[in-house]
Amino acid sequence: MKSLSVFIRLSLIILAVAGISSCEERSSGPAGSGIMEFSVTMPDQDSKSVSDSSVASYHVLISVTDEDSNIVFTDKLIPLYLFGNGFVSENVEIEAGQYLLTKFMVINTAGEVIFAAPLEGSELAYLVKDPLPVHFRILPGTVTRLVPEVLAVEGHTPGQFGYVNFGISVVKPLDFWVMAVLDPGDLMPPVVVTTARLTVVAPDGWHYGFRLEACPNHLIIRGGYEYYKFILEKEGYMPQTMRFSARQLWATTRDNPLTLKIPYGTALKKMIFQPGPDEGKDAMISNLEPDKNFGDHKYFEATFLSEPVLTVMRSNRSLIEFNLNALPKSATIRRVMLHLTYDLPIPFDSSYVTDTQPSAGIAWYGGVLQQIVESWDEHKVTWNTQPKTIEYNQVYIPPFIRNVNFIEVDVTRLYVYPANTDMVNYPNYGMMFRLWPVDRFPGFRFASSDYPLASSAVKMWPALIVYYTLP
Length: 471
Description:
Helix content: under 10%
Largest sheet: 8 strands, antiparallel, barrel
Mean pLDDT: 80
Strand order of the largest sheet: 1-2-5-4-3-7-8-11
Number of domains: 3
Distance between the termini: 77 Å
Radius of gyration: 31 Å
C-alpha cells in the first residue's frame, strides 16, 4: 500500500495551433484544432531500464469523450519516447472544445499497465484529488495543461481502479458437414439437394444462423455441449426442428454429411396481394398539414425531412391495409412477408446504418410497422384523425444501404399471435409505418399502391406475400 501514496505526475499538454505559430517546427492542423502531447516523468527505477534510443518503449493508453459523451478516442495508444530523464509522446491532433479524459494508463515495454488513474467511485479513488473523468477545455491560441494523478498498479486489480475486470474462456470449436434436401418420401425419388437456413441452438441459449448452399456445407459451431437443437427453414415450407448429439456431428465428413430433410408434404401454399391504385388502400399523414388527407400519395413513407418553403422539419407517416378475403376461410397463416420497393433511397447519415435490432442500453433509430386496431378511411384519414396502433408486436426496420431497390420484411407477428396471449382480442386494420423511437434521421420512402406504373410494366406497389396451410 506504500506505493499507492506515491503519485506520479503526468503532464498532458495541449498546444492550440489555430491562428498562431510555434517556435518548434510543427505542421498546422485545421483552424480551431490543437496538438495534444503527453510529458511523463518516471521513477528512477523505471527509466534506468530504458535504452538511450529514440525507439518507443512506453505507451500511454487514453480514452476521451466530448461534452455530449460522443467518443473522441477509445483506448488510443500513444508512444512515449525517452527525453533526458523523462518521456515525451507523439503529437495527437484534436479540435478545440470541451472534453473528458475517461481513461489514463501507462504501459511498459512488456505490455503491462504500471500506472493508472482511478475512476470516480472506485475503491482507490479516494487516494487522488481528482479521479477520472477529468474535464478539460481546449481554446485556440492557448496552452491547456492537464495533470492527472496516477497510482502504481502493482498488487491491485483493474476493478479497484474502476476498470472492468476480464478473464479468458477458451472455447473449443466443433466442425461438421451438413446439407439440406427436399424429401419426397414415398411419393417419388430422388431427393433434391437444396438451399436453406439453419439455426444451431445450444442448451445454454447460444445460437447462430447459417445459410446452407445446395451442397455439403462445412460449418463450425461452439463446442462443449452434448446435444444441439437444429431449426431448418426454407421459404415456402414449414420449419423443421431436429436434435443431434455432438458425437453425431463429429462423425460427419464431406463425403458423408449430416442430411437434414424437408418433407415435400410440409410445402406451404402461397398467395400474393399486390393491389394497384384502384384497389389499394394506403395513405400518408403529415404533422405540418394535420387536417389534410393524402390518400393518393405515391409514396409509402416514414420520414423526417426539412420543408424547403417553411424551413421547418416535416414528419410523415403512412398507413396501409391489405384485403385478405381471397384467402380460403379454413387457411392457417404460417408466414407473412411485406415486399417494399423504392425508386431512389433517401440520403441519410451512414452512422445510423445497422442490421441490429433494438436492445437495452443501446441507442437505436429506425422505423416500425405497428398494428392498426381502429378502422380508417383512405381518403379521409389525417394526422389529427390517425387511428390507434399498438406497440406490442411492432416490427422494426433498421436503416440500410443496399445495392437493390427493394426490401422484404417479415411481418408475421402482425397477423399471427401466440395462443397464450390476449392479442387475439385486437382487430387488425393494417399497418402504420413511422419512425422509432423519435424523429431523428431522414427515414424511408417506398412506392405506394398509387405509384405510377413504369413503362417497363414493373409493378413497384407494396406486396403482401402470405404463406398458409389448409386442413
